[in-house]
Amino acid sequence: MTQELTDAIVALDEEKVRKIAKSLIEAGESPEVVIENIRLGLQVIGDKFDKGETFIAELIMAGEIVSSTIEQIKPYLLENQSQVSRIGKAVIGTVQGDVHDIGLNIVATFLDLAGFEVYNLGIDVSPATFAEKVRETRPQLLGLSGLITASQGAMAETVEAVKAAGLREGLKIMIGGAIVNEGWIEKVGADVYCKDAAQAARVAKQLVERMVS
Q1: Cα–Cα dist 38/66, whole Å
Q2: With contact defined as beta carbons under 8 Å apart, do 87 and 116 qualify?
Q3: How large a percentage of the chain has pLDDT more than 70?
């Protein structure tokens, strides 16, 4: 049924996506497997978009389907975690000039489930807004997302804004997104790159554990 979930996302069949996701969770499937198959469906659509085989409207619609599905199944994911032990705080967002939040919202869910208090700033977030939220919340983690080439410059500017505000020390900066890779880490001044939401949650926990050990 997990493959059916991926296929339903590719087909942009919101009703079927929500039905299958809920059925999988209620049947005891792990949240990681469910959300990974959601991600795979999004990846197929993203690849089609890159090849000119689909349009921005379909990409946006897919993102809306995923967001609504995650909200639908989130209570099931947390029903046995009524008192989640919070291990830290994370500020995340898509950098300035980029309006994609497909992966961002999945990362937010995974970090939440991993025990982070998540401040999701959404899309097209300016360096100054990131820096101000870091100053306000004093998180251990700052997550920057980008899906366009220009995001590299925006990420670097965001890191510089955090440094200029005197907030870089003790803050781990994670980057990710469809176009991002390991080579961006040094260029933007980040600490780590993660290829997907599941890895982001695992790495975030490891980073915080090292900070407190």
Answers
A1: 7
A2: yes
A3: 95
